[in-house]
Amino acid sequence: VPQTIKFVYHGRLPTWIGGKDLILHTIGDIGVEGALYMAMEFTGDAIHRLPMDGRLTMCNMAIEAGGKAGICPVDDVTEAYLKGRATRPYTVYASDADATYARVIEYDVSQLEPQVAFPHLPSNVRPLSRVGDIPIDQVVIGSCTNGREHDLEVAAKILAGRQVAPGVRCIIIPGTQEWSP
After folding, report:
1. Which of 20, 33, 55, 99 is spaced 20 to 30 A from 143 at the CA atom?
2. Mean pLDDT, to the nearest integer, of 103-124?
3. Beta strands in 32-157 (DSSP E)
């Protein structure tokens, strides 16, 4: 059984901030080997307000910090997600109230900015205000970590009324075939 690092996210997430920003900020803090062979447990009031796709993104990207698993506590959001998807009975597990952790790391995310990962590691991350003017020639929206329905809805709101700049290629890759009208 791997050791676990508990990450506690306090505060309300600002507009446009989601699970990808939380996990990039975390990886930027602990590095790509910061959770090597460990489980990463994500909790706190910001996680409880996070939609399921944001939680899935965080858990999927635990591997980018060397983690063996990413875990979020089961709550009403999780139960609603499982309703209609689970095809057999399941058991809910939760951390013991007196669980011991290798580390407990806490963040106040109420002022968190959108996070931008630079080459060549996901730990090379900066808040948007520290990015500067960088010419780009390709944008990818989607994939397994940020291509769920909610992610694409947010991207559509940001892009509404705008056009992709000349000379920039924009690729959209849904992370799921499921879509609700």
Report:
1. 33
2. 94
3. 39-43, 69-71, 103-108, 115-117, 125-127, 138-142
- How many secondary structure helices (H) and strands (E) does the chain include? 5, 8
What is the chain's alpha carbon radius of gyration, rounded to the nearest angstrom? 17
Residue with token string 């790391």:
105
- pLDDT exceeds 60 at position 181: no
pTM score, whole prediction = 0.89
Q: What share of the chain is helix, strand, coil (3-state, %, to 5)?
A: 30, 20, 50
Angle of helix 52-60 relative to helix 149-159, nearest 10 degrees, comes to 110
Pairing of strands 4-10, 169-173: unpaired
pLDDT of residue 163: 92
Tell me, what's the pLDDT at 44? 97
Enclosing H/E stretch for 4:
strand 4-10
User: CA 109, 63, 18: angle at the middle one, nearest 5?
Assistant: 30
CA atoms within 13 A on the CB side of 31: 3
Q: 36 and 66 in contact (C-beta within 8 Å)?
A: yes
Please give the angle made by the CA atoms of 15, 62 and 5, to the nearest 5 degrees. 100
Higher-confidence residue of 52 and 149: namely 52
Separation between Cα atoms, residue 181 and residue 165, nearest integer Å? 29
